[in-house]
Amino acid sequence: MDSKNNSTKDVYKVLGLMSGTSLDGLDLACCTFKRTAAGWTFSILQAETLKYTPAWQKTLATAHACLGEDLVALDVAYGHFLGQACRTFLGKHKLNVDFIASHGHTVFHQPGQPGKGFTFQLGSGQALYAAAEKPVIYDFRSLDVLYGGQGAPLVPVGDKHLFHEYDVCLNLGGIANLSLDVKGKRLAWDAAFVNMGLNYLAGKAGKAYDAGGALAAQGELHAGLLKSLSKAYAPLRAKKPSLGREIFEKKFQPLLDKDTIPLHDRLHTFTVAAAREVGDAILSSVGNRVPSVLCTGGGAFNHFFMSCLLDHCGDRASLIIPDETVVKFKEALVFAFLGVLRSRNEVNCLKSVTLASRDSSSGLIVGAV
């Protein structure tokens, strides 16, 4: 369904959902947005992360291997799971919302590839709507891909409207991406794999993640692995593609599987390599300025990664970590905001960021918003 233009409405209450590539869990953030003469303002009313059970972690991690009707069934099952999670969250906090904006969980992301050019986020919006009994906006990436874009990153639209006081917005999730305005145009790109690789390595130590980067800090830099990682990043540095699981598994995972290198050293070296890629991406984009860099996402809590990034940037950048709620839930917040823009039929996907042929108001709507 499409929506009527709600441009006369100035205040929205939305539940944003985000499930990232690191499989940490489902982020839920109930947010209010207000349109003022000076632009948009926001507040996060309640937010929490619903940790995935081991069964859901395994299911989502292997979803790309599902065939045919099994993938369709999982799409419905996960949509139902999302809807039930929303009902529980809203009931627990006695909240009501205008609608739910769901990112879903990315299973396939192959934009711009010959004979492919698609993206798929698991989590049927219809099933979510049926379970939550609230209007739903979902599938924010597909239209942009069909317009020839990368379908990512999408968060820069939120950066532009909600965090414009910062020179650079850096998100440190499974994948690190950054966005900034250059001569009035928003630009953004994926810079490196962060938690996707760190969590993969931590799993070899029987841990879900390396808390604070403690394991990595115990290791030593392995020059050979660092050189190999830098070489793997080289073509990505030049082309700035949208990074996803497929690239990680093909180009980086084999390097991390070299068990002749101690695990702590692999963690240490991968962290250093990622921090250097992210730091270079920041510094090469701002010229001679000393930019204020907003750092959010789970990687901002990785003390060792942040120390490596600070060491690499030195006094050439000012790294700013906001309050913990914004750090943890910025992506869920932004997808809630993308839903607001979609409900208003306003641009929520920028061609300057995704390289699509046009800007778009992307997302499928179920129910009346």
TrEMBL record:
The keyword Acetylation does not apply. GO terms for molecular function: ATP binding; kinase activity; phosphotransferase activity, alcohol group as acceptor. Gene3D superfamilies: 3.30.420.40. Its EC number is 2.7.1.170. Keywords: Kinase, Transferase. GO terms for biological process: amino sugar metabolic process; peptidoglycan turnover. It comes from the Bacteria. The keyword Transferase applies. InterPro entries: Anhydro_N_Ac-Mur_kinase, ATPase_NBD. Pfam families: AnmK (PF03702). SUPFAM superfamilies: Actin-like ATPase domain. This is Anhydro-N-acetylmuramic acid kinase. It comes from Dawidia soli.
